[in-house]
Design a protein that fits this description.
The protein is mainly alpha-helical and 86 residues long. The chain is built from four helices and no strands. Helix 1 crosses helix 2. The longest helix has 14 residues. 0% of the residues are buried.
Length: 86
Amino acid sequence: MTITLELQPEIEKGLLAQATVRGVSLIDYVKEIVVREAHVSPEPPRQRTGRELIDACSKVQGLFTDEEVDTLFSRNPSFARPVDFE
């Protein structure tokens, strides 16, 4: 269902500020309010299995050789490096 709301600018500003504090978009925040006020539980998150990760990884298997992976993802064990914060 699509609903169009015409909000007074100060109400929109207040809702946007609250959404920003929560780290969500204004639309998602308004949806949260509607669900809460309608006393309807949101659909529970789908249980994911390890199989999905295995399937996703199998799609990229073989893109790099072992040497390329070592080169791309090697780490410098030295933690005493100068850091420039400018």
